[in-house]
């Protein structure tokens, strides 16, 4: 899958960040960014990586699509203590870097529970996909915010047409507006599209 | 912007692909052989200032145009607002949105000056590019928003 590049023979390899060495310090001071080698791999796999936010679960979007007929969603969010699924397809090769979420009811540790899955399209070499969590995880334990994202230890590569699915359960006895976002990078594969 | 020899290819502009054995353009410097060390760069802010949103107003467009003097390397998203909001951001130069057709909540898109959303891999916006933000109020009250693209000019 990966195309690892190495310096030309006879040339001393130095794995320094090509853009700014300052982010190496940022991950110590500000937030915990992914491992440098993981970010380096994104850069090597994709030409011109482009930041991309996929809102894999969004009560506002669900309501717009489903409406109130299901009894699960209202214009103000997901109904008390109910759960719902939502899915998204990755339009291009995508490196998942961080998980983000926002909610309107409850606290970080009590608002909602979340479980993430992904599968690949029929005919690809791995149709089985992957369950990322043994059981639903409290939102505050698996999602950050834009201020403090939950960066993955290693960015996860999701090939084009991967289907991502999630289940969200509202743990509050009140309507809850929840949005869960996958943050990562889209880009043309290095070497060009084939 | 102080340039230095690219440490990945040592200035050769090309590296060897160990899988194919073929040479290829250096992914770090895009073949130029030089990169910026980033030691003398000054931070720069490009703000997007939509008009004040009324309560639950949807689809308010605002743009910022990157200056003609240099490409812009974005490494932070920062925003402030008087209420919660959502937005869809698009790079008009590439005709490429930063999200699918649906809007992303501000809490998930941008941080603050104290805790910005640091992009693990900064990306370049071309000079003269127009960045379009489409803003929606979620607060139910008038909402004044400023969304900033922060980084440095590649002079």
How is this structure best described in words?
The complex is a heterodimer of chains A (194) and B (155). Chain A contains 4 helices and 12 strands. Chain A has 194 residues and is of the alpha+beta class. In chain A, the strands form 3 sheets. In chain A, strands 5, 7, 8, 9 and 11 form a 5-stranded antiparallel beta sheet that branches. Chain B has 2 domains: 3-36, no CATH class; 43-154, Jelly Rolls, CATH 2.60.120.230. Chain B is mostly beta strands. Chains A and B meet through β1, α1, α2, β2 and β6 of A and β2, β7, β10, α1 and β11 of B. β1 (5-6) of chain A pairs antiparallel with β2 of chain B, so a sheet runs across the interface.
DSSP strand tally of chain B = 13
CATH class of chain A, anyone?
Mainly Beta
Give a count of the beta strands of chain A, DSSP E runs of length 2 or more: 12
Distance between the termini of chain B: 6 Å
Mean pLDDT of chain B: 89
Mass-distribution shape of chain B: elongated
Name the helix and strand elements of chain A from N-terminus to C-terminus, one letter apiece.
Answer: EHHEHEEEEEEEHEEE
- Gyration radius of chain B (Cα, Å) is 19 Å
Helicity range of the residues of chain B?
Answer: under 10%
Which structural class should the secondary elements of chain A be placed in?
alpha+beta
Largest sheet of chain B: 5 strands, antiparallel
| SS element count, helices of chain B | 1
Describe what is shown at a glance.
Chain A has 194 residues and is an alpha+beta fold. Chain A has four helices and twelve strands, in the order βααβαβββββββαβββ.
List the helices and strands and how they pair.
The complex is a heterodimer of chains A (194) and B (155).
Chain A (H helix, E strand, L loop, with lengths): L4 E2 L15 H8 L6 H10 E13 H8 L6 E2 L2 E2 L4 E7 L4 E9 L9 E8 L10 E2 L5 E2 H4 L7 E9 L4 E8 L8 E11 L5
Antiparallel strand pairs in A: 2-12, 3-4, 5-11, 6-10, 6-12, 7-8, 7-9, 7-11
Chain B lengths: L2 E3 L8 E4 L5 E3 L8 E3 L6 E6 L11 E6 L5 E11 L3 E7 L4 E2 L6 E2 H4 L7 E9 L4 E8 L7 E10 L1
Antiparallel strand pairs in B: 1-4, 2-3, 5-13, 6-12, 7-11, 7-13, 8-9, 8-10, 8-12
């Amino acid at each position: 899958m990966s195309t690892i590049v190495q310096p030309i023979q006879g040339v001393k390899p130095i794995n320094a960040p090509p853009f700014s060495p300052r982010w190496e310090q940022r991950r110590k001071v500000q937030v915990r960014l992914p491992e440098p080698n993981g970010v380096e791999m994104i850069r090597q796999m994709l030409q011109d990586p482009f930041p991309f936010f996929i809102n894999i679960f969004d009560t506002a979007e669900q309501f717009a699509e489903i409406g109130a007929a299901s009894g699960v969603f209202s214009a103000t969010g997901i109904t008390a203590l109910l759960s719902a699924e939502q899915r998204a397809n990755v339009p291009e090769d995508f490196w998942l870097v961080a998980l983000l979420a926002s909610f309107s009811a409850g606290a970080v540790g009590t608002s909602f529970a979340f479980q993430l899955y992904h599968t690949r399209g029929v005919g690809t070499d791995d149709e089985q996909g992957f369950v990322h969590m043994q059981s639903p995880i409290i939102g505050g334990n698996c999602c950050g915010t834009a201020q403090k994202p939950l960066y993955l230890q290693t960015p996860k590569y999701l090939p084009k047409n991967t289907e991502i699915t999630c289940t969200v359960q509202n743990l509050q006895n009140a309507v809850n507006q929840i949005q869960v976002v996958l943050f990562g990078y889209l880009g043309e594969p290095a070497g060009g599209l084939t | 912007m102080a340039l230095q020899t690219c440490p990945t290819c040592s200035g050769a502009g090309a590296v060897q692909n160990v899988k194919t054995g073929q040479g290829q353009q250096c992914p770090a410097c895009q073949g130029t052989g030089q990169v910026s060390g980033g030691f003398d760069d000054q931070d720069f802010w490009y703000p997007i200032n939509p008009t004040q949103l009324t309560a639950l107003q949807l689809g308010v467009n605002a743009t910022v145009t990157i200056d003609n003097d240099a490409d812009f390397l974005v490494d932070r998203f920062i925003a402030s607002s008087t209420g919660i909001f959502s937005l869809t951001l698009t790079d008009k130069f590439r005709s490429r949105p930063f999200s699918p057709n649906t809007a992303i909540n501000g809490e998930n898109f941008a941080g603050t000056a104290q805790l910005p959303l640091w992009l693990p891999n900064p990306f370049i916006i071309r000079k003269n590019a127009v960045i379009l933000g489409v803003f929606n109020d979620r607060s139910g009250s008038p909402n004044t928003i400023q969304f900033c693209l922060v980084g440095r000019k590649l002079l």
